[in-house]
Amino acid sequence: MTELNKRAKQFMDALLHIDADRCSMLLDNLSSQGGDLRLVEDVVIPALEQIGVSWEGGDISLSQVYMAGRICERVVGRLLLENTCSIYGRPRVGIGVIEDYHALGKRMVISALRSSGYDLLDYGHGLKADDLVERALKDQLDILLISCLMLTSAVCVKDVVAGLRRAGSRVVVVVGGAPFRLAPMLWKEVGAHCMGSNSGEAVRIVRTLMEDRIWE
Ligand code: B12
User: Fold this and answer.
1) In whole numbers, what is the pLDDT of the chain averaged over residues?
2) Mutate to test the pocket of ligand 1, among 73, 102, 161 (most ligand atoms within 8 A of CB)
């Protein structure tokens, strides 16, 4: 087991014991070594994914999953950039979680983009396809980032893409979240332009789209 895997395991144990103080302490120790977002990618996400697997296997309860999610929101939130920005210039980027309420991934993507110098609009979570279409059109977005963690939510991206094209919009739709990682061709099936597996990829995708100015 590598050092980071060991950290992820320690973090998961603390989560399952609903020990928020220990979770904070473990992250603070690592955070002092620098690279906050990398740290979340390497420690928090593997821990949460393993918790999801354990829940599926019937080894832990939904309340433990729930509390793990809540603790992560709190402790990770402290490490992320929280300032709300308005969008100036190009590209105009917006992000939202379609249908479901798994919002941590979106927060990480926002933080990575903001710390890389991109402003973006946060549309929140639990959004219907029509909400996303309406907002993307109203804000005249160039890039719409959609996050989700449930397969049933992922398929709704199709309706967003259809709604945008019906309205004549050329906004580029980029997706991310567990269903797209698990089914590598799903992004194509729902009509997205591409998918990203983590917050670093979100930054790379926005940068490339901006260089190509694909919306022009
Ligand atoms: C924590 C958690 C919860 C918490 C959520 C807390 C919160 N506020 O977010 C709670 C307890 C509330 C919850 C509830 C439920 N959950 Co849940 N949950 C999880 C769990 C364990 C971790 C999710 C998480 O936060 N991961 C960490 C984040 C940071 O990762 P991420 O979102 O993937 O984001 C990263 C990348 O994907 C990427 N990314 C994300 N978005 C985007 C967007 C773009 C554009 C790009 C480029 C990249 C990108 O960057 C991020 C950083 O690397 C997962 C297990 C798993 N394998 O994911 C199950 C999981 C997602 N849940 C699941 C289910 C079924 C549910 C419930 C239906 C359970 C129930 N019976 O009530 C409800 C549904 C609630 C709802 N309507 O949304 C299933 C979904 C299965 C499926 N096939 O659809 C999973 C997979 C568990 C499982 N193995 O079965 N859950």
Assistant:
1) 85
2) 102
* Domains of the chain with CATH codes: 3-82 (1.10.1240.10), 93-212 (3.40.50.280)
Atom nearest to 44 CA in ligand 1: 27
Nearest 5°: the CA angle 89, 209, 44 is 95
Asked whether residue 83 carries a pLDDT value surpassing 90, the answer given is no
In this predicted structure, the answer to whether residue 4 has a pLDDT above a threshold of 60 is: no
Backbone angle region of 90, left / alpha / beta, with phi > 0 → left and psi within -120 to 50 → alpha: beta
Atom of ligand 1 nearest to the CA of 66: 11
Give the H/E segment covering residue 138.
Answer: helix 129-138
- Identify the pLDDT of residue 211: 80
* Ligand 1 centroid from CA 68, angstroms: 11
Does residue 137 contact residue 164 with C-beta atoms inside 8 Å? yes
Pocket test for ligand 1, best of 149, 161, 204 (most atoms within 8 A of CB): 149
The 10s digit of each residue's pLDDT in 39-63 is 777 888 788 888 878 888 889 998 8
* Confidence at 84, pLDDT banded by 50, 70, 90: very low
